[in-house]
Amino acid sequence: MKTPKNLGLGVVFNNPNAVLELTLPQWSVLISQARAAGMLARLGLLLQEAGLLAKIPPQPLVHIQSALTFSQRFDLSLQWELQCIETALADVNIPIIYLKGSAYSVAGDRAASGRLFSDVDILVPEDKLLAVETALVHAGWMSQTFDPYDQTYYRQWMHEIPPMRHLQRHTSIDVHHNILPKTCQYSPDARQLLAHIVKVPGKDCWVLASEDRLLHSAAHLFYGGEFERGFRDLSDIDLLLKEFSAQEGFWDKLLQHAATLKLDYALYYALRYTHLMFKTPIPEAIFVAAAQNISLGKPMAKCLDALFLNALQPHHSSCHNRWTQLALLLLFIRSHWLKMPFHLLAVHLFTKGLRRIKGEDNH
Amino acid sequence: MRLYGAFELVGDDEFIDFYIAIKAPNILRRFLRPQAVFSFDDYVPFKPLPYSHASAFFEWGLNWCIASQSQQYLIIHAAVVEKNGRAFIFPGTPGSGKSTLCAALTCRGWRLLSDEMTLISLADGLAYPAPRPVSLKNQSLDIIGHFAPEAVIASIVHDTSKGTVGHLRPPDLSVASAAIPALPAKVIFPTYRQQAATELVALPKARAFMKTAENCFNYNILGSQGFNCLGRLCDGVDFYDFTYSNLDEAISLFAELAG
Known about the structure:
The complex is a heterodimer of chains A (363) and B (259). Chain A has 363 residues and is α/β, with parallel strands linked by helices. Chain A has one domain. Chain A is built from 16 helices and seven strands. Chain A has helices at 9-14, 24-36, 40-49, 58-88, 100-107, 129-138, 148-157, 190-194, 210-223, 230-244, 250-260, 264-278, 284-292, 298-311, 324-339, 342-358; strands at 97-99, 119-123, 141-143, 164-166, 172-176, 198-199, 206-207. The longest helix of chain A is centred in the N-terminal third of the chain and has 31 residues, at 58-88. Chain A is globular. By secondary structure, chain B is an alpha+beta fold. Chain B is built from nine helices and 14 strands. Chain B has helices at 28-31, 54-69, 98-107, 139-147, 172-176, 205-214, 219-222, 224-236, 247-258; strands at 20-23, 35-40, 49-50, 73-83, 86-91, 111-114, 117-121, 127-128, 134-137, 153-160, 163-168, 183-192, 199-202, 238-244. In chain B, the strands form three sheets. In chain B, strands 4, 5, 6, 7, 8, 12, 13 and 14 form an eight-stranded mixed β-sheet that branches. Chain B has a three-stranded antiparallel β-sheet with strand order 1-2-3, covered by helices on one side. In chain B, a hairpin with a 5-residue loop joins β7 and β8. The A-B interface holds A 1-2, 23-25, 27-28, 32-33, 35-36, 57, 59-60, 62-63, 65-67, 69-70, 72-73, 76, 315-317 and B 10, 12-17, 19, 41-43, 69-72, 220-223, 225.
């Protein structure tokens, strides 16, 4: 069987009308790419908005519609899950602040469109962690690891406590007190995030300020080492930027918040790579200002381009080249490098390695 | 090939629903305790299995793809066969004997739609075929071997999580008519019990509705669409509980029901 000439998902997201030219084998690859990237429902919504669904051949259409049905059900289940969380935490007397996917959903952001995920993330003040964790346990959530080393690792160094899972619904919640690990040199002051939270109109919950939602998404993508959903995450940033740029004074506030939160680099990468891959409209002055706030030598910038532009493609063999695995590996190492200082990292990796050999660690 | 001989290969200009691969995890594993890894769109949903389970793994994996990615159907965990244009649906938990019954019926000229998943279209309420080799477990292998000595049973694997598993080649005609849906006529809940007399008991519809819903893979995902689809199915079919031990009696009874 011949491999059809590949029309990447990126091309379709820049120009939905391109699907009108696709042959059936090209559709096969596109659907497969979109599924692998976790973007099939979002692709469906994009084509729906562009009025193209009626022009799609029936074979790919059933897959798109199937994903749309699933995504509708997901949104409904998510609402129910969030309600359960709000009930469980009602007595703790803190604002319930959702992060990432759940935040996009309650805030009605376009980045919620067709987005599936497995954990609900919330942000709480660090001194309320114990109260929140206790309330969740009383309502049926339980820590997913009982391993003393993992428990200590999370609580001492990370920005969240170990993930908790509900005993009956099997849903997961990540309770955060910050958006990057304590040990990361770019970890912001969480009080700055809490100072700008926004109440969701008509609901009993909060989200980070628009600028901070965007910066969190950028920090997560460009400081984290996992790119399986990288294309989807970059698409989130693209959708957030397009949506928020209509807000009065958004760009200036974005630069300010990035400086306060020590996330200038994350912002620069977010602007650069959304613009390169999704043609996100970004005012020239903002781009120049963001670039001035960081110092990145030319060779380093070239190197990062090569790595990110590779790693951010859909996680699918048709989008990979011979360098992709290397790029992913280097970015994974980079993320650990950024996550904690070398002496901590060395001790952590040594302990993990030793435990794996002894068979105590199954992560 | 013995199992899949009747299937056509995908042409160069056709659409492919699922990209599936079964591979060795790495070069070392090709020689040392060989394993098979199942991947779907380059994603690996399951842990590797011993290499000898590869053929069964392919069938299970493909079932999983269909069951998890086809929300255009209400998917009932049930075997489905057809005679005279009337589809008989046999829901059942593993061990209820649905696959054995399904295999026996197809060996006697019924058309196989599926031994595992009944796909009821939300659009038209018809059962859509996905004919593939029929999975037979443990004693069923012997039972069908005796019942239809001419049947092709291949890829027998021992010590899987389901015990000994083999697959029965689907009738060529069933494979050739894979594009033709059938109108559901009966939903029959089978129970195989040794020495049991053949007994068919009509079920009230409300009870049967719930019993069928419990056997659906995606009833909860489809929400009101699933409820309406199942309601429409209930309006059009008769429901029965069925206990049996003698396959010949079972088959002549169903032939009568099919008219």
